[in-house]
């Protein structure tokens, strides 16, 4: 009877442990994905590159917070690893076995240093491979960030250069051309937008950047938002604009601001980077806009 009772207790303990493990696994499975990585390998005479498939990204996640491991990586005497942030919060006591966290896992740190992941914008032309925990920083400055066509009836998405070529191929008649420093007359009602394209020597070339002017009406004012469709990359989509109003109700007025860079025009009322014009100042919908390049 003693052996049987001990066996039942052992099974019950194992069952509870399995259920706890299953709950943790179900949470982590939500973040599981597949990626091809580049790993340097070889002897001292020659280093080689080997393409491998990492079928579960959870192996490079902290077992406590599930965030990606970053160097330094700490481990307890049983080999359970945690990130440095969790190590500090746990006061160097392992969350898995409660034993002290006394050392760093140098082998895992070396693996993280060698792992390279393709940019998620690879389908749009980016060929860079980045360290896993630097992916977000890379995406913020990636020149191949997907840009969406500003025309409502079009669903095209591609790199900014592909979008410029697409706008000429598919929407040339709907574009209004502009030259930097020269004024362009536009007529906008509330809820409407005008897509401007920078004029080049060949209007059918893919060169020339896109600028979208949107108008929003509120009970007491008209809001003008000006955006350039471009990634957050130095030298691309950097413009300023000036609006001039010639109204029969008032003298000529001028407004100016920076053009914000976006990858997609939302069509929603802006909360930053806009010009607000009281309705009594500008009852008509005519205005002149001058766009100029800026250094930063």
UniProtKB/TrEMBL annotation:
Pathway: Protein modification; protein ubiquitination. Keywords: Metal-binding, Transferase, Ubl conjugation pathway, Zinc, Zinc-finger. Residues 1-25, 32-43 have a biased composition (Low complexity). It is an enzyme of class 2 (transferase). It holds the Pfam family Sina_ZnF. It comes from the Eukaryota. Belongs to the SINA (Seven in absentia) family. E3 ubiquitin-protein ligase that mediates ubiquitination and subsequent proteasomal degradation of target proteins. E3 ubiquitin ligases accept ubiquitin from an E2 ubiquitin-conjugating enzyme in the form of a thioester and then directly transfers the ubiquitin to targeted substrates. It probably triggers the ubiquitin-mediated degradation of different substrates. This is RING-type E3 ubiquitin transferase.
């Amino acid at each position: 009877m003693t052996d049987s009772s001990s066996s039942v207790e052992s099974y019950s303990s194992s069952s509870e442990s399995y259920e706890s493990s299953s709950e943790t696994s179900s949470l982590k499975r939500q973040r599981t994905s597949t990626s091809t990585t580049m790993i340097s390998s070889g002897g001292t005479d020659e280093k080689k590159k080997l393409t491998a498939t990492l079928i579960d990204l959870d192996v490079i996640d902290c077992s406590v917070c599930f965030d990606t491991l970053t160097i330094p990586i700490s481990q307890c005497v049983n080999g359970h690893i945690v990130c440095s942030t969790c190590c500090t919060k746990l006061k160097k006591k392992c969350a898995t076995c409660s034993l002290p966290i006394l050392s760093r896992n140098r082998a895992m740190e070396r693996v993280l240093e060698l792992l390279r992941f393709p940019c998620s914008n690879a389908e749009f032309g980016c060929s860079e491979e980045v360290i896993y925990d630097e992916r977000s920083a890379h995406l913020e400055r990636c020149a191949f960030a997907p840009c969406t066509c500003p025309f409502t009836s079009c669903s095209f998405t591609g790199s900014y250069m592909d979008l410029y070529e697409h706008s000429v191929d598919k929407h040339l008649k709907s574009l209004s051309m502009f030259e930097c420093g020269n004024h362009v007359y536009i007529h906008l009602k509330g809820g409407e937008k005008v897509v401007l394209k920078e004029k080049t020597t060949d209007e059918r070339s893919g060169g020339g950047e896109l600028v979208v002017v949107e108008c929003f009406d509120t009970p007491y004012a008209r809001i003008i938002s000006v955006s350039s469709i471009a990634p957050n990359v130095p030298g691309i989509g950097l413009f300023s604009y000036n609006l001039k109003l010639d109204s029969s109700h008032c003298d000529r007025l001028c407004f100016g601001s920076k053009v914000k860079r976006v990858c997609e025009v939302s069509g929603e009322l802006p909360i930053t980077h806009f010009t607000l014009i009281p309705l009594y100042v500008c009852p008509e919908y005519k205005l002149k806009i001058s766009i100029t390049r800026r250094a930063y």
